[in-house]
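Data availability excerpt. The first of two example chains:
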Amino acid sequence: MEAKPMSPATPPPAQCVAFAETIAQEAGVLALDWFRQGMDIETKADDSPVTVADRTVEAFLRKAIAAHFPDHAILGEEYGAEGSAGAPTWVIDPIDGTRSFITGWPIWGTLMALVQDGRAQLGVVEMPALGERWSAVAGQGAWFTGRDGQRTRACASQCRDLARARFYTTSLLYFEGAARTAIEHLAARTATARFGGDCYSYGLLASGHVDLVVESRLEPYDFLALVPIVEAAGGVITDWSGAALGLESDGRVIAAATPELHAQARTLLPV
């Protein structure tokens, strides 16, 4: 691919999301070379697993971004931050759901966001093993692309009542103390509570299949790509206090199909 370098002041145009979709898809193909294959699994300082697939895919993404947008910064899970402070920043997670990846479960994704002026301006969630993708540019709608290549508008549900909500969180093990009690209480008050999913749960919310997702212990590369997608689909996504998500957020995330459902769920969560 060839593209003219963009300056730091350039807003994220349609060509940025098209670029992100293309290299996320290519990264997903690369990751699939290791999926359900034997490989060494290392444990990082935070006790999370990492593999050669995570590192190779992130290196690929970094190289592609640097070639197309040399003035942009990059923040990734495996290799940290590089580039100038204040520059537009690509925030990437090569394999969101590494635990799923290493156990052969196909619910893992490649995430890309472009952050400018403190806000995620575009997001891509690529699900390589499923052949699915969500993408969005802030204020321009969210889109779902299925395995058949059909591209359709992603729209959140109109669920406003916690008692009717379909709820997801990745794992109860990610909550402790008052937060664990609160999330169990929240789950008990919903119509359906399911566990697992990582980034996939937010895509399902954007497409109207899930109404509420609550998480903790996330990093910016886990959630920033999800923000434009959920919001452009008509949903609400913030931290537990209701503040906008950004690079400095504390990792506690709540996403809901409607403002009313978001407000109901927040009343049950400690701030």
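And the second chain:
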Amino acid sequence: MELTCIVCPVGCPMVVEPRSGDSAPDVSGNLCPRGAVYANEETRAPKRAVTATCAIAATPENGKRGPYAPRRVPVKTSTPCPREKIPALLADIYGTKISLPVKPGDVVIANWNDTGIDVVATRTLA
């Protein structure tokens, strides 16, 4: 399997050869040890950072903000999410409504499904 390392801007082209059993795969082409760690994780349990938006809860104050006021708040996961769980996480994010005010780092969803993943706001909205 061929992978391009995304840990740093170098983007090393790597070749990953799986081994039998639970041992780490053979990795070649990486210029630093972080590439081997990335290749091992990517082949065994891939994870991704998730970014999305949450709706702003309707309140009387929101109606006075004007037609060009934002209606959604950008959010991201605090840690990468297992790739197979991303659709369920996105469904929960899109179903969440945030009350204002909110600032970067405010936890919108805490410990999602007991995974240790928090969803946090990335923009200030008052």
